[in-house]
Design brief:
By secondary structure, the protein is mainly α. The protein is about 70% helix and about 0% strand.
């Protein structure tokens, strides 16, 4: 009975990891390479700059790597704490952009990036489960210190980036909600 329960949990983690990781990876590759109808680095960098993430190209690279890299690692179940933290940190920036529109995605709100961020963080905190590369490698990249360092580092980086964006937008440097109207 206990073995069956553990197998179900591990299978559930596998499904959650692969689904969440694939969605994040797809979004990141839109930013980095223009795949799946995305803008690639140039267009994403320009958009990021207009939203107050300065410099735009470097912001696009960071967001793309957090999403694509974190998502791919989540799907594989490798370095799961760092992967979850990186993806959650990237989603914190997306939440900041969508927050002025409220919660619900149908109104342009932050519901979707918040959900992805919470799911990534939960997987990073929980661990990848038995059906993962972390398990296959003896959890070499999934240690308690890795968990703490990854989440503290990601939270600090997200706070700095979002804070810098808020200060930039406060002095009229960008379009806060990304709709092209200068934040009006």
């Amino acid at each position: 009975m206990a073995s069956c329960l553990h197998s179900r949990r591990d299978l559930g983690l596998l499904v959650l990891r692969v689904g969440t990781g694939a969605v994040l990876a797809a979004h990141g590759t839109q930013k980095l390479f223009g795949w799946f109808g995305g803008g690639g680095l140039e267009a994403t960098g320009t958009a990021m700059e207009s939203m107050g993430f300065v410099p735009g190209r470097q912001s696009a690279v960071a967001a793309g790597l957090g999403e694509a890299g974190g998502g791919a690692l989540l799907a594989l179940g490798l370095a799961t704490p760092a992967a979850g933290a990186a993806a959650a940190g990237a989603m914190a920036g997306a939440v900041a952009v969508h927050a002025p529109a409220g919660f619900f995605a149908q109104s342009g709100g932050y519901e979707y990036p918040a959900f992805l961020g919470f799911a990534a963080a939960a997987i990073g905190l929980t661990g990848a489960g038995r059906y993962s590369l972390d398990h296959a490698t003896g959890h070499r990249f999934d240690q308690p210190w890795t968990l703490a360092a990854a989440f503290v580092g990601s939270a600090a980086a997200a706070a700095v980036v979002v804070g810098k964006r808020q200060r930039h937008n406060a002095v009229g440097g960008a379009d806060e909600d990304g709709d092209g109207d200068g934040g009006r």
